[in-house]
Write a structure and sequence with these properties.
This protein has about 280 residues and is of the alpha/beta class. It contains five helices and 26 strands. The chain has a domain of about 120 residues: UDP N-Acetylglucosamine Acyltransferase, domain 1 (3 Solenoid), CATH 2.160.10. A hairpin with a 2-residue loop joins strand 3 and strand 4.
């Protein structure tokens, strides 16, 4: 029986309340461990690109949920701190062999996260279960990569950036940052938003499906995605509220403006990447 079949069968039993954390057998927990190993090896992913669209692998997200539902909380040790969780932290012995660097005192990688070769994780940073971090990607200080988030290769996440997690509902695709993207410090990407490859996003930009993206290249308004090879930043546009007695000068709401990536912007990005070699 394949790992997908085992997880799907176990999920059906869990849904029928036939198994819980107290009654989970050794074989069932072994299946969950094998599933986490497959996530960490990049053999299975919470989402994959099918044709031109990113789609969630529902059985993978169910496997992650089973690891919460069928495991009991235990005290665990991290440095001198005792914490309580259903999952241990990820074993990082394989990272150095593949050229990846992770600095100490605050870099936390949870079990079930994939970290590619030649990546850099600066403390303090947190990578949650089901996340995929591609080769050569920089996770900078105070960054959070949420559960099931898919981060491509050669990506730069500026300091204090939040990549949101989308674990439930299982049919929803998680946040995706495609290859070659550069996010400035303080960016927030949430709710299944997709950032197209080789785009450059200005600092403190909020990307979420509820905020429109004014793509001046194709002259269209988009929701939930930033096309490839765009330079994006936050601007404010007039709100439908208009004038109100409580404030003067009209009301405004945030939006994202997207332009072509300029050569000088690419040059600056390349110079910054050279510092990571």
């Amino acid at each position: 029986m394949s790992l997908e079949s085992e997880i799907s069968t176990l999920w059906e039993r869990y849904e029928r309340d036939e198994v819980d954390a107290e009654g989970a057998t050794t074989d069932q927990l072994d299946t969950l461990d094998a599933f986490l190993d497959a996530l960490e090896a990049g053999e299975v992913r919470a989402a994959e690109k099918q044709s031109e669209e990113w789609e969630a692998n529902e059985w993978v997200k169910r496997g992650i949920l089973l690891n919460f539902g069928l495991r009991e909380t235990h005290p665990r040790t991290y440095g001198d701190v005792t914490y309580h969780d259903v999952l241990p932290l990820r074993d990082t012995a394989d990272l150095g062999k593949r050229g990846t660097r992770n600095t100490p005192d605050g870099t936390v990688i949870r079990r079930g996260a994939f970290i590619g070769a030649d990546a850099i994780l600066m403390s303090p940073a947190f990578v949650n279960v089901g996340a995929f971090v591609g080769s050569g990607t920089l996770i900078d200080s105070a960054d959070t990569v949420g559960s099931c988030a898919q981060i491509g290769s050669g990506v730069k996440l500026g300091a204090n950036t939040l990549i949101g997690g989308v674990l439930e509902p299982v049919e929803n695709a998680p946040v995706v940052i495609e290859d070659g993207v550069s996010l400035g410090a303080g960016c927030r990407v949430t709710s299944g938003f997709v950032v197209g490859e080789n785009s450059i996003v200005g600092e403190n930009t909020l990307l979420t499906p509820r905020i429109p993206v004014y793509d001046l290249v194709e002259e269209e308004i988009l929701y939930g995605e930033l096309p490839s090879e765009r330079r994006a930043f936050t601007r404010y546009v007039e709100s439908s509220l208009g004038d109100h007695d409580l404030f003067s000068g009209g009301a405004y709401k945030p939006a994202v403006v997207a332009l072509d990536v300029e050569d000088q912007t690419l040059d600056a990005t390349r110079r910054e990447e050279a510092l990571r070699e």
